[in-house]
Amino acid sequence: MSDNVFDQIFPLGEPNDAYAQYFIGQSYNAPLTGGSVPVANITFEPGCRNNWHIHHGTDGGGDQILLCTAGSGWYQAEGAEPVSMTPGTTVRVPAGTKHWHGATAGSWFSHLAFITPGENVSNEWLEPVTDEVYSKLPTTNGDNA
């Protein structure tokens, strides 16, 4: 881990090595609950973002819920404008939506993440968010995006 200290209410967790191939930069995973609706605190170092991906599911399953708890980040669905995420921002990503999320270039970012239970729930990892796309975003959130 870097020497940076990131103040947040949930644990940072361990380096997210199991999914590192789907991230640009370092992320951390702190599982908070198990069971039928596992919840994790995912933390991104500045500039870290995950690849484009799609959560699949039927019978109400596969929606992803993101709840920003600390820092500053982005969520973007394919074909839509990026959404600024700061503490208190919530996003529901409907099943079947191609999207990505991650930190701004200038800030750490944490969100709670969970997937609604249902049938045929799975995740499809796709291509990285290119530096060209990412570099067009403001480096910090505010009245932009």
What's the arrangement of secondary structure elements?
Elements: E1 14-15, E2 23-24, E3 27-33, E4 39-44, E5 49-50, E6 53-58, E7 64-71, E8 73-77, E9 83-85, E10 90-93, E11 99-103, E12 109-115, E13 119-125, H1 131-135
Antiparallel strand pairs: 1-3, 2-5, 3-4, 4-12, 6-13, 7-10, 7-12, 8-9, 8-11
Describe the structure.
With 145 residues, the protein is mainly β. The chain is built from one helix and 13 strands. A six-stranded antiparallel β-sheet has the order 1-3-4-12-7-10, with no helix packed on it. The model has no long low-confidence stretch (mean pLDDT 92).
Briefly say what this structure is.
This protein has one helix spanning 131-135, and strands at residues 14-15, 23-24, 27-33, 39-44, 49-50, 53-58, 64-71, 73-77, 83-85, 90-93, 99-103, 109-115, 119-125.
Instruction: Estimate the strand proportion.
Output: 35-45%
The helix content is: under 10%
Identify low-pLDDT runs: none
Instruction: Walk across the major sheet and give the strand order.
Output: 1-3-4-12-7-10
Largest sheet: 6 strands, antiparallel
| Basic shape | globular
Short key terms for the protein model shown above:
13 strands, mainly beta, 145 residues, 3-stranded antiparallel sheet, 6-stranded antiparallel sheet
